[in-house]
Automatic annotation (TrEMBL):
Region Disordered, annotated ranges: 1-78
Superkingdom of this protein's organism: Eukaryota
Coiled-coil residue windows: 90-148
UniProt entry keywords in alphabetical sequence: Coiled coil
Name used for this protein in its record: SPRY domain-containing protein
Compositionally biased residues, Low complexity: 7-18
Tagged with keyword Ubl conjugation: no
Organism the protein comes from: Blattamonas nauphoetae
Biased composition (Polar residues): 43-57
């Protein structure tokens, strides 16, 4: 058997130094590409001859394998340094991307936490706003109730004041005598009673300074004196007798005589038991008139002092004097001019 002939197409390896000092093997082929029909036919012939050859003969290699490493072509004509820089930059970029992913994950978690906190804060704010509105409504309600209660209290106080004034007037009407000696005079409402046999003892009303005031009494007492006296000069708890009365006293004695400063100045009708004796003082006209059972007496006093007090002088022990009227009147009971007398 003939040895296999060499293929007319031969591969030649040309070694050229690279710019970095490394060898790059370049294979040049002087034949047509391996995918052509002639190349395929040659390979078939070689394989046929190899199958009929003697087993002791060496079979030539089908392909030539270079004994040195094959260097891949440099991408885009980059140097090794540039490739290393690309690799290092890629690693750094990869690390940076991983860090960025971790940061994004952390930011997403923080964002979720912040969102939850914001929801919590919004819920708290809404709750506080509702509480604020409730407090405002409650304050308005309490303010309204307070104003209503204040108005009611003011009305109640006005009513109580009116009642107090009414009670005061009633007390004054029922207890006209405010100045007296408890050792000599007993006062029970509108009733005055002498309780000992000592010297004459007077009792007095509160002072009056304007308007028209009137006091009326009835008694079974035989001896009694009624009149008015200067409010600032009256002898407290002492007798106001016609014989020793001060100048500012104007008295009507039971016998019908008018006395001032211990002197008799005129004569009116004699007083009798069971009659109503009245004294009326007009503080605007400064006059004092006397009445018996509503009938005006002809003699009266003029130019009286202001303010003044009404006075009763009791003579008989244990004989009550009933004050039937005491207070201010709207209209005078004077119907005749009469005769006026100045103080003695």
């Amino acid at each position: 058997m003939e040895p296999p002939s060499q293929s007319p197409q031969k591969s030649q390896s040309v070694t050229t130094p690279s710019a970095e000092g490394t060898d790059v093997t370049q294979r040049t082929q002087q034949s047509t590409p391996p995918t052509t029909p002639s190349r395929t036919h040659d390979l078939s012939q070689q394989m046929l001859r190899f199958s009929h050859s003697s087993p002791k003969q060496a079979t030539p290699p089908l392909f030539s394998v270079p004994s040195h490493p094959i260097s891949l072509p440099r991408p885009q004509n980059k140097t090794t340094g540039e490739l290393m820089l690309d690799i290092v930059g890629y690693d750094r970029l990869k690390t940076t991307v991983e860090e960025a992913k971790g940061m994004m994950t952390q930011l997403e978690r923080e964002k979720a936490e912040w969102t939850e906190e914001r929801k919590t804060h919004l819920s708290t704010i809404q709750s506080l706003q509702r509480e604020k509105e409730q407090i405002q409504h409650e304050n308005e309600r309490l303010r309204g109730e307070s104003e209503t209660r204040l108005i009611e209290m003011q009305r109640t106080m006005e009513g109580m004041k009116n009642q107090l004034d009414t009670c005061t007037r009633c007390i004054e009407a029922n207890n006209p005598i405010v100045e007296f000696s408890p050792e000599h005079i007993r006062v029970n409402g509108s009733t005055v009673t002498r309780i000992n046999s000592e010297s004459h003892v007077g009792c007095f009303t509160k002072p009056v300074s304007r308007g028209i005031h009137r006091m009326s009494i009835t008694t079974e007492m035989r001896y009694v004196t009624i009149g008015v006296i200067d409010a600032d000069e009256y002898p407290k708890f002492f007798a106001v007798d016609v014989d020793s009365s001060p100048k500012a006293a104007m008295m009507y004695k039971d016998g019908g005589s008018l006395w001032s400063a211990g002197k008799k100045v005129a004569q009116n009708t004699k007083l009798e038991k069971g009659q109503e004796w009245s004294v009326e003082a007009d503080l605007e006209k400064r006059t004092v008139h006397f009445f018996i059972d509503g009938k005006q007496q002809p003699h009266h006093f003029i130019n009286i002092p202001v303010p003044l007090r009404f006075v009763i002088n009791a003579y008989n022990k244990d004989v009550p004097i009933e004050i039937t009227f005491w207070g201010e009147v709207a209209k005078s009971h004077v119907t005749i001019e009469g005769t006026g007398h100045n103080l003695g």
